[in-house]
């Protein structure tokens, strides 16, 4: 189990000087850090976890506005984690990530409470576009993603 608390600053902040918190769950260190960097560029305070157990501990101890979660994780898969995280915080908005552009995976994720489903490799503009729709209150803080 690895929890990585990173991203003590964010690229943009609201009038109160804070920014929404996000958690990235992915067993690939490169993917995890890349996604966290993208979120920070888009105005989020990003933290990371490498597995479901670490992610659940983090979500139980802190309120996050957003979770980016890989579907394929060691042990507990991302869809099961999605349900568990949403049971801890029904307001948590979850974006599932997968390298499989599969309609069945996408349907399962959306049925279980995911707000969106994005295909890896994660790219900044599709992520920004998705998040602008999910967080309209952030307005222009997310810029154009590029």
From TrEMBL:
Record's keyword terms, sorted: Phosphoprotein
Entry-annotated residues carrying 4-aspartylphosphate: 70
PROSITE patterns: RESPONSE_REGULATORY
Domain Response regulatory: 21-135
Pfam families: Response_reg
A single BP term in Gene Ontology: phosphorelay signal transduction system
Domain of life: Bacteria
Entry keyword Phosphoprotein: yes
PANTHER family found in the cross-reference section: TWO-COMPONENT RESPONSE REGULATOR (PTHR43228), TWO-COMPONENT RESPONSE REGULATOR ARR22 (PTHR43228:SF1)
Protein name: Response regulator
Organism: Noviherbaspirillum pedocola
């Amino acid at each position: 189990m690895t929890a990585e608390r990173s991203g003590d600053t964010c690229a943009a902040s609201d009038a109160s000087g804070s920014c929404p918190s996000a958690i990235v769950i992915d067993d690939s260190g490169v993917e995890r850090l890349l996604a966290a960097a993208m979120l920070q560029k888009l105005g989020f305070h990003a933290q990371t976890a490498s597995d479901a157990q670490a992610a659940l501990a983090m979500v139980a101890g802190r309120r996050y506005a957003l979770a980016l979660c890989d579907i394929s994780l060691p042990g507990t898969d991302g869809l099961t984690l999605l349900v568990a995280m949403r049971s801890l915080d029904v307001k948590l908005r979850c974006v599932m990530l997968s390298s499989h552009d599969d309609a069945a995976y996408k349907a399962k994720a959306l049925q279980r409470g995911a707000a969106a489903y994005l295909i890896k490799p994660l790219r900044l503009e599709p992520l920004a576009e998705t998040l602008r729709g999910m967080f309209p209150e952030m307005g222009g803080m997310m810029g154009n993603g590029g």
